[in-house]
From TrEMBL:
Location relative to the cell: Cell membrane
Protein name in the entry: Fe(3+)-hydroxamate ABC transporter permease FhuB
Similarity annotation: Belongs to the binding-protein-dependent transport system permease family. FecCD subfamily.
Main location class: membrane
Matching InterPro entries: ABC_BtuC-like (IPR037294), ABC_transptr_permease_BtuC (IPR000522)
A Pfam cross-reference name: FecCD
Gene designation: fhuB
Membrane topology: Multi-pass membrane protein
GO BP: siderophore-iron import into cell
An example Gene Ontology molecular-function term: transmembrane transporter activity
A Gene Ontology cellular-component term: plasma membrane
CDD domains, alphabetized: TM_ABC_iron-siderophores_like
Length: 651
């Protein structure tokens, strides 16, 4: 009942905000002029700007909520949304490239460019999963990697062309400003066509909620149904992205709140998700126009999380949990564990030597030997040791996150601690003219502690439900990213200084930072064996854990604190490192180790290798310029992971 009342309150807020805004901006006389076809300026603004903007907000929000609900059914994952399959990132990258290389195409071909980018990303994901009958876990992992890769390339372009992309910042923040009805009509036609296809496939889509074996037993062609439904979903997502830019969280919030409201039948859940998505986006936009005036240029997409996230966090304890997600489809033996660990250690030692010895004398690259080598060591060892230590902690945190939640899309960043550190860093940049390292670290630590405390309180209220932990973390992460995106649109030069930190830069670490990181890495390695039993049992489910005497509250609390520490320290020292903690567990599962301690230790080594290699390549690739290690880690690790996914069978 609480969820239903919240949706009713949201509908009332939308109606009230819309009526008040339109009454203030366009008194009754202008509506009479509109009906009488009078040619006054204010009447034209009402007809060609205000009303199309309202219609666009409702249509785009409904589309995003609908698509997210469909994707959650097809992928069997409660945190699936358009960004999961790389759709939004592909469209955004294509439009960013077009704005730099061929800006003239954007005037009339924005839709086609966005749809082409989204379709290309989706085709790559489909190609990765075709050998496994388009299995949901392969689709999700492939989509997440493609999304990270596109996002990395986009961030790299922004770093080097920041001043030329101010208009793209506004578009990426989700701008609903309209000048006529053309874009709205086009989006409504696109929505109608794709929705009809999904409606025809509604019954097969309902069967997809079963396990694959049961669906096949009913004669359902799984690959064809998933291909058609996902194709229609990608088309809808790309159409919205092309029309109004990147609007995150609306779809996830709409689908989640629809389930919280008790919608059990699929068609009811899809309709309710669309309604809630439309209400969230339109209410946010109307509220912004009330605060800033009809001609305010604050992109609504950047602030939808300010309305949707608190609402979702409030209702999460009342959300019924979905069945646990299986992270693997078959078991593997550990016969390759020791050769894998030996190979990782060998690669790490080789990379460490390269990181310390590789130098450039302004004419060519060479390896330093003898006195030259020892002269470079004091300059290089802090960043190399920090890269290894941060990667090691994030790899272990990634394994713990995925085992704690039972979700292959879980990562240390998804639990929200990194965003807490980011909020602390953002406050520091805005509050202090020239904040020093100590102030930045203290602010980041304060943000991490507050976020961890909030997640812990919510987890206790939700009986440590893995799904609710992930959704709460995503809500907090979206709040941070939305705030940061909005500040980027203002052109504030102070925010630009955070771009390098957001990309994960190791260039400014000190000897003290490296020592702290190494100390925490040693602590993590020593702590890991004590958590082995919990990490092995919790993926079986809480009922199984309780049956063999494991305390769910105690084990979840300790693991949550461990994940928070292993995430907060690297984030404070280096910045967010999205790829490392997410993908290293999957890379390790492809190598062979399955037992939790061996898997976590190997994942730590793999992450350390990726981050150290990223630091070396980032320094050398565009010398004398430097690519931040966080971006470079995605560029180094993502292609390898995609190649490995293509070669290996579903796990």
């Amino acid at each position: 009942m609480l969820a239903v009342a919240s949706i009713g309150a949201l509908a009332f807020a939308f109606i009230a905000a819309t009526v008040i805004h339109l009454d203030r901006a366009f008194p009754a006389a202008f509506w009479y002029d509109l009906l009488a076809s009078q040619g006054k300026i204010q009447t034209a603004i009402l007809y060609y700007s205000a009303l199309p903007r309202l219609a666009m907000a409702l249509a785009a929000g409904a589309c995003l909520g609908f698509v997210s609900a469909v994707m959650q059914v097809v992928l069997r994952n409660p945190i699936a949304e358009p960004a999961t399959l790389g759709v939004s990132s592909g469209a955004s990258l294509a439009l960013t490239l077009a704005s730099l290389l061929t800006p003239s195409l954007l005037e009339n071909g924005r839709d086609m460019i966005g749809i082409a980018g989204a379709s290309t990303a989706m085709l790559i994901v489909m190609a990765l999963a075709t050998r496994q009958n388009l299995s949901p876990i392969r689709l999700m992992l492939g989509g997440l990697i493609v999304s990270l890769l596109c996002g990395t390339m986009n961030a790299l372009i922004v770093l080097f062309h920041h001043d030329n992309l101010q208009g793209m910042f506004i578009w990426n923040a989700g701008s609903l400003v309209q000048n006529d009805w053309h874009a709205t009509h086009r989006l409504l036609i696109q929505i109608s066509a794709a929705t009809v296809l999904i409606a025809i496939l509604l019954r097969p889509l309902a069967i997809l909620q079963l396990q694959d074996e049961n669906a096949r037993g009913l004669g359902l062609p799984l690959a064809k149904i998933r291909l058609l439904v996902l194709g229609a979903s990608v088309f809808l997502s790309a159409a919205v992205t092309s029309a109004v830019g990147v609007i995150g969280f609306v779809g996830l919030a709409g689908a989640t709140l629809a389930r919280a409201a008790g919608a059990r039948r699929l068609k009811h859940r899809l309709l309710l998700s669309a309604l809630i998505g439309a209400l969230i986006l339109a209410t946010t936009d109307q509220g912004l126009q009330l605060l800033t005036g009809s001609f305010g240029e604050i992109p609504a997409g950047s602030l939808t999380a300010l309305l949707g996230a608190p609402l979702m966090l409030w209702l999460l304890p009342h959300l019924a949990s979905t069945p646990e997600i299986s992270m693997s489809e078959r078991r593997e033996t550990d016969h390759r564990i020791w050769p894998a660990i030996a190979l990782c250690v060998g690669l790490l030692l080789i990379l460490a030597y390269i990181a310390l010895a590789l130098t450039n004398d302004m004419s060519h690259w060479r390896f330093a030997f003898g006195p030259d080598f020892w002269a470079t060591v004091p300059w290089r060892w802090p960043r190399s040791l920090t890269a290894v230590s941060a990667g090691f902690m994030l790899g272990i945190a990634g394994v713990m996150s995925q085992r704690l939640t039972g979700n292959p899309l879980a990562s240390p960043e998804v639990l929200g601690v990194s965003s807490g550190v980011g909020l602390g860093a953002l406050v520091t940049v805005l509050a202090f003219a020239q904040p020093d390292r100590t102030i930045q670290m203290m602010s980041g630590a304060a943000g991490a502690i507050l976020t961890m405390a909030f997640i812990f309180i919510l987890a206790r209220r939700s009986a440590f439900s893995p799904e609710k932990l992930l959704l709460a973390g995503l809500a907090i992460s979206t709040l941070f990213s939305s705030t940061f995106t909005f500040l980027l649109t203002t052109g504030d030069p102070r925010v630009h200084t955070l771009l390098v930190w957001m990309a994960g830069s190791i260039s400014n670490v000190s000897e003290h930072d490296a020592t702290v990181a190494f100390g925490f890495a040693l602590f993590t390695a020593a702590m890991l064996p004590l958590l082995g039993r919990w990490l092995a049992i919790l993926p079986l489910g809480m009922s199984s854990a309780r049956a063999i005497g494991v305390s769910g509250a105690r084990s979840n609390t300790v693991l949550l604190i461990a994940i928070s520490i292993c995430t907060a320290i690297p984030t404070m020292l280096v910045g967010p490192l999205s790829f490392v903690g997410l993908m290293s567990p999957h890379i390790v599962r492809m190598i062979g180790p399955r037992r939790p301690i061996q898997q976590a230790f190997t994942a730590g080594l793999v992450s350390a290798i990726i981050l150290l290699a990223a630091d070396v390549f980032g320094r050398a690739l565009l010398f004398p310029y430097e690519i931040p290690a966080g971006l470079m880690a995605s560029m180094v690790g993502a292609p390898y992971f995609l190649f490995s996914m293509r070669r290996t069978r579903s796990r």
